[in-house]
Design brief:
Length: about 160
């Protein structure tokens, strides 16, 4: 039997073709630093910040020890900037590189939950969101393979179509 499609089109990645200009608010996840410090993209080498370089490369403060995801609503986007609304009622702009599609965030939370022990930011509220979404996909479960397949159908061009 066919599996239900992950919600790629309604909660897809920022930058999808269906995601241009003004839009209705939709659920997303936002990458945030755990310690409340200004966000520094994990791919950036902190060559100008010795303390951050030490934390990343010597103390191995990386991954879920240094970054978390938080729920938000994507309100609008222009260029590389997205306007989001947080659950505390605040609205602000973030670089699109900090936006994570809803389903992809659920897959991440599923893996975080499996860590023993999970990081301190994985709260009972996040577990409740994850459990609630699992109910929606109870037949197939949250599937990384299915999500990847659906995403590739929307963005990859191969063979005769290329």
């Amino acid at each position: 039997p066919p599996h239900p499609a992950p919600p790629c089109s309604t909660r897809g990645a920022v930058g999808d073709a269906s995601d241009s200009g003004k839009m209705g608010a939709r659920e997303i996840w936002v990458w945030d630093p755990v310690d409340g410090q200004p966000f520094v993209h994990p791919a950036e080498v902190p060559s100008e910040n010795e303390a951050l370089a030490r934390a990343r490369f010597v103390d191995k403060v990386c991954g879920p020890r240094s970054y978390k995801i938080t729920q938000a609503q994507l309100l609008d986007k222009k260029g590389n900037i997205a306007m989001i609304a947080r659950s505390d009622g605040s609205n602000h702009e973030v670089p699109k590189s900090r936006i994570l599609p809803w389903y992809e965030g659920l897959l991440l939370l599923q893996e975080i939950e499996a860590q023993k022990p999970p990081p301190s930011w994985f709260t009972s509220e996040l577990k409740a969101v994850l459990d609630q979404e699992r109910v929606k996909y109870s037949k197939a479960g949250l599937s990384g393979g299915l999500y990847t397949e659906r995403r590739l159908l929307e963005v990859a061009i191969t063979g005769a179509k290329f």
